[in-house]
Amino acid sequence: MKAWLPFLLSAAVFTSACSDDDIVNPSNTLGVSLGQTASAVVVGGNTTVPITLTRGGGFSGSVNLSAENLPTGVTATFTPATVDGASTSSVLTLTAASTAAAATSTITVRATGNNVTAGTATLPLTVSSNGLTLSASATTAMAAQGAATTIPVVINRIGTFTGDVTLSAENLPTGVTAAFSPATITGTNRVTTLTLTAASTATAGLSTITIRGAGTGVGAQTQTIAFTVSPSATAGFGLSMSPAALSVQAGQSVASAITIARQNVFAGSVQLAAASVPTGMTVTFTPNPAPGTSVAVTVATTSATAAGVYVIPITGTSTGAANYVSTLTVIVSAP
Predict the structure, then answer these.
(1) What percent of the chain has pLDDT over 70?
(2) Domain end position, chosen among 233, 250, 270
């Protein structure tokens, strides 16, 4: 019996080390594809990359995502970092610290799961000290079939870059169109409004739309928006703003307008309210509550309003309908 003891102990150790999670089923497959063939990020900024997973051979489990070979000063986050078996998408955000060095590298996105060989995809990444950053005030948006929604978009020019920035939208779902006002941000201007319009025949469901900002001589920047088209059969309403991004000098006023898109048989008045309004600023709506489809918006500032970029949620409420939240971005400059 003593002669068999070492063999039994070795077998026990081997068995415990090899759990079911370590066994790879050769028929299971896991693929990773990226929404960009190359990416660029400006020092102090960030950019986003859509990720799509492909499961095959009977594999239907959760997938963990990670990034490898990141350059110094660049971090990666995934939303979500673990993709459950019912989902196939995530978004990678690459952020370059202010201390990151300008460089070009190739990062690897790795997807792992139980009982399946890991899937990988590579992405050339350029870190630059000159360029632009791009930010949308909302990372999620919704419009009913036959309605529209608006999203403010703000750019920052960094380093020696002073050129025009052209905006575009990619990966639009069937029946959805995108329009920027303006489509090119010129001079010292920094804001534009993206309007997403869903036709009455638009496919209902969730999709990931990519906003791209491009300038001559600098790397393009992208941001993603999780956009939902809801069926028009449900009574309710949506809000769209024009423009959805405003610039104003402290002590002055500026105007915008809200269009209320009414769904199905909804005919109620909509009460509007603004949140996160900074000191010295007021936001008023006329009329409020709104019985029709048009509302005038006035943003007034005083000398006490500090310079900065403010994202102000605008919430509409009405009896018998779900609340709807839109956003208004206000850039205040010093007097």
Answers:
(1) 93
(2) 233
Report the CATH number at residue 290.
2.60.40.10
Residues sharing a CB contact under 8 Å with residue 86, sequence separation 6 or more, in sequence order: none
Round to whole Å and give the CA distance between 228 and 206: 4
Residue 108 has pLDDT above 80, yes or no: yes
Structural domain that includes position 185: 130-233
* Torsion 83-325-181-264 (CA) sign: positive
Q: How far is CA 84 from CA 90, 168, 224, in A?
A: 10, 31, 20
Do the domain assignments include residue 270? yes
Query: What span, in angstroms and rounded, lies between the C-alpha atoms of 131 and 94?
Result: 15
pTM for the full model? 0.66
The structural domain count of the chain equals 3
Phi, psi of 251 (to 5 degrees): 100, -10
